[in-house]
Amino acid sequence: MLARIAATLALGAVFSTANAEPTIVGSLPAEADCKRCHADIWAQWSASAHRRSSFDNPYYRVSAEAFRRERGRAASRFCAGCHEPVLLPVLERDVDPASPEAQAGVGCLVCHSIDAVDLSGNGGYHARVRTEVHGARAAILVEARLCAACHKVGLRPDVTGDRWLRGQDDWDAWLASSSSGNGAGAVFRAPSPTRCQDCHMPLEPAAHDAAAKKGMVRSHRFLGANAALAHLRGDRDTEARIAAFLAGSVALDLFVDGAQAVAVLANRRVGHRFPGGTNDSNEAWLEVTARDAAGRVLGRSGVLDRDGALDGDAHLVRAQPVDGDGEPLRLRDPQHMRGVAFDTSVGPADPQAVRFALPDGTARVEARLLYRKFGEGYARRACGRDVACREVPVLEIARAGAAVSQASANVRVGGTGSGPAPILDGVGWRVLVERGLALAGALADRAEQALPFLEAARDAEPDRPEPLLALARAMLRLGRTDDALAFARDATRRAPSHPAAPWLEALALARAYRHAAARAPVEKLLTLVPDDRAALLLAARVFGVTGDPARALAAADHAAALDPDLDEAHYQRSLALAELGRTVEARAAEAAWLAHRSADEIDLALRDKLRARHPDRPDESEPVHLHRLH
Ligand code: HEC
Ligand code: HEC
Ligand code: HEC
Ligand code: HEC
Ligand code: HEC
Questions:
Q1: CB-facing half-sphere around the CA of 188: CA atoms within 13 A
Q2: CB-ligand 4 contact for 347 (6 Å cutoff)
Q3: Which atom from ligand 3 is nearest to the alpha carbon of 201?
Q4: pLDDT at residue 15 above 50?
């Protein structure tokens, strides 16, 4: 049975997205009187990024000050709703970074006063600051959408000076994943749904806290990946906790295919895309080393130079926002952002493969997935001469190694999929499925390379649905509709309530224009994952095309309520409303669509500009692309 969290969302009217901003009734103090009785929680929060979200954080200050200079101080209300709500009333003046108000961060009374949240994010919360916080507790405190208020950014035209763009957004990535109970297409599902709070606020022992139950409180450390702030203040304990939190959250698997090493990244414990948060400044990359039989280094990729700068063609795991010239943003400067040139972040259900050409004579290859919260250039700008600020810790998330002779002899990856099946060679069936899923994500003419791995996994675990579902996905990629349908239906027989089976079936049918036949799997899908936006949009399309505009509208309305900025939801609404003769509403829906449209043609043009400026770098926008070792 699929327990569900997101289904409990109380959905109100579709919010106006024009100007989401906090509404704060009462005034927030720079420091709340909580420490006295909640010493443990206070200490945890003091070590958290929420504590340092304002002008006392040099990495934030450099970016916020640039924004204030270029767009005017009043415009930075946009940042303040999330980063420093205490400063909202005085932002039009100069900010003294040493004042208590500029160091308040996201304090106790921010979260503990919020009683409603706008799902457009952008700090669109409603807070009622009370003198007594105990007693009636706002229901929203234990819901994931509390976090949506600030962990979902939409860059409005008044911020970019150009078109509307999606900023960092862990909320929607979570809502689209099996961690929330949704994740229609996820082949591997989270064992049970988890809220943001479950992963980021686990129970922790507390000896001095009035709220401790059985000696435990919900941790207010909000561990993530920001080891830079901990390092800056010499907080080794927090640095070690962050390293432990990150370790193993993404799995790295390495295998050899002829003269290439293929690294496969699979998201194992991140309830949203990896890396989460500010994808543009987080530096997560693959370090790869090829050695000869004597252990000598023959070539490397992803190496830091003496100043700590990362080599220009390392494989970065990230989204790459760019300015109007196609140049990567340097200072987290949304005012210059014009689009996203590529996105190599790892989705919760989409393993990713990257190829590395191996030098002649390679006997062994090693790889590590490394993470640094800020790159060298950003840290230099933010920190000036402050050494502790500039040396941002590099944390290892995963490592893998492969011997060339042995591995390449064992694993045959034929171009046709008809050669001898690869043997398991010690890796589990799950890793084989992840390899297959990653390779199937490649351009269609290479996706066949996925098949031997997936067939081997199916042969090893004939009763499990995952290898079959992955085979269905690969067939869909290859355009083999009937094979995709056969595998999806086979998976349904083995796991009747796995959402990916009706998802793949419906998708295959819809792509083949067999919309009437797609209705049954779509209906089933909606009972399994009723709050999945991708499922709702597919349903809206299928219902619309098969002459049922009322149901198409219901599905699209629901998707738009879950994400008021979802362009495709407004597009589907406009079609259904027009069909129903409600022309005025149809026109409004069309306007909402155009206002949020993710303009692929602009992103592609920006990507071309980036490539023209850096012709030496590999094309990160191509799945399963090739890097060279130096
Ligand atoms: C004089 C001591 C005292 C102070 C000051 C205090 N608390 Fe508490 N708080 C308690 C005690 C005792 C409990 C446990 C009550 C229980 O479990 O029924 C508690 C429980 C809580 C709870 C969990 C129960 C609930 O009502 O939701 C929250 C949240 C909370 N406090 C927040 C705060 C915040 C925020 C502040 C600062 C604005 C604060 N407290 C200041 C004593 C205090
Ligand atoms: C970023 C938001 C946020 C901030 C900031 C925050 N809290 Fe909380 N707090 C929560 C959430 C969410 C919960 C409930 C978690 C759950 O039960 O799922 C909670 C729970 C609590 C509880 C109940 C104890 C428990 O174990 O559940 C206390 C007490 C509390 N907070 C006190 C504080 C104090 C004191 C501060 C400031 C030092 C603070 N909080 C800052 C979000 C926040
Ligand atoms: C009022 C706005 C606000 C709310 C509500 C809020 N956050 Fe945050 N959160 C922030 C800001 C701002 C930062 C970034 C601070 C910085 O580094 O400048 C942040 C940082 C974080 C980080 C990053 C830590 C790191 O190491 O990088 C985590 C994890 C996090 N929040 C989790 C949560 C969760 C879970 C919730 C809901 C229970 C939540 N937050 C609610 C504003 C908020
Ligand atoms: C299944 C566990 C899980 C769930 C659920 C989850 N996260 Fe995370 N989150 C992680 C892990 C692990 C990381 C560290 C890896 C990374 O940075 O992506 C992380 C990282 C983050 C970061 C830090 C990024 C940074 O750059 O420092 C933020 C912010 C965050 N999560 C917010 C959220 C919010 C908001 C939610 C709910 C909408 C949420 N997370 C749900 C596991 C989870
Ligand atoms: C919707 C809420 C929201 C808004 C609006 C917002 N931010 Fe953030 N910002 C966050 C959260 C949450 C994080 C933490 C994510 C992470 O650490 O990866 C963050 C992280 C950052 C960081 C990363 C470094 C750090 O530790 O602080 C910078 C810099 C930053 N924001 C600058 C800005 C500026 C400048 C603006 C206004 C132009 C802005 N933000 C607007 C929520 C917001």
A1: 18
A2: no
A3: 35
A4: no
Band the pLDDT of 426: cuts 50, 70, 90: low
Paired tokens of 565: 């900025």
Residue located nearest, by CA, to atom 6 of ligand 3: 147
Mean pLDDT of 244-262: 95
Cα–Cα distance for residue pair 323/466, rounded to 1 Å? 41
> Distance, CA 270 to ligand 4 centroid (Å)?
6
Contact 124, 117 (CB under 8 A): yes
Query: Is the torsion defined by CA of 197, 368, 398, 235 positive or negative?
Result: negative
Looking at residue 13, what is its pLDDT? Answer: 37
- Amino acid sitting at position 325: D
Q: What are 36-82's pLDDT values in tens digits?
A: 999 999 999 999 999 999 999 999 999 999 999 999 999 999 999 99
Q: What is the mean pLDDT of residues 497-521?
A: 98
CA dihedral 360, 317, 186, 460 (to 10 degrees): 20
Residue 427: pLDDT band (50, 70, 90) is: confident
Q: What is the pLDDT of residues 373-385, one digit of tens each?
A: 999 999 999 999 9
Q: Round to whole Å and give the CA distance between 295 and 29.
A: 60
Distance 141 CA to ligand 2 centre (A): 8
Cα–Cα dist 230/246, whole Å: 15
Closest of 490, 484, 489 to residue 510, by C-alpha: 484
Q: Which ligand is nearest to the CA of 113?
A: 1
Distance CA 177, CA 199 (A): 14
Q: Which ligand places an atom closest to the C-alpha of 152? A: 5
Q: In the structure, what pLDDT confidence band is assigned to residue 425 with cuts at 50, 70 and 90?
A: low
Query: If you take atom 34 of ligand 3, which residue's CA is the nearest one?
Result: 147
C-alpha to C-alpha distances, 118 to 121, 129, 288, 407, 485, nearest whole angstrom: 6, 18, 43, 52, 39
Pocket flag, ligand 2, residue 111 (CB < 6 Å): yes
Rounded-to-integer distance, Cα 286 and Cα 318, Å: 12
Question: Is 276:270 a contact under the CB 8 Å cutoff?
Answer: yes
Residue whose Cα lies nearest atom 41 of ligand 3: it is: 147
Pick the ligand that lies closest to the CA of residue 46.
2
Q: What is the mean pLDDT of the chain?
A: 92
Q: List the structure tokens of 619.
A: 């094309």
What is the rounded CA–CA span in Å between residue 157 and residue 221?
34
Separation of 360 CA from ligand 4 center, angstroms?
Answer: 40
Specify the pLDDT at position 413. 37
Tell me if the bond preceding 275 is cis, omega within 30° of 0.
Answer: yes
Closest CA to 20 of 100, 117, 157, 146: 117
Cα R_g (the chain), whole angstroms:
25
Instruction: Give tens-digit pLDDT for 531-590.
Output: 999 999 999 999 999 999 999 999 999 999 999 999 999 999 999 999 999 999 999 999
Cα gap 106→22, rounded to integer Å: 13
- Short-list 133, 135, 166, CA closest to 152: 166
Q: How far is CA 436 from the centre of its chain?
A: 21
Q: Are 346 and 352 in contact (CB under 8 A)?
A: yes
Determine what percent of the chain is predicted with pLDDT higher than 70: 93
CA distances from 567 to 82, 205, 307 (A): 24, 45, 43
CA distances from 128 to 148, 393, 442 (A): 18, 39, 50
Taking residue 83's Cβ as centre, other Cβ atoms within 10 Å add up to: 23
Per-residue model confidence as pLDDT tens digits over 136-164:
888 999 999 999 999 999 999 999 999 99
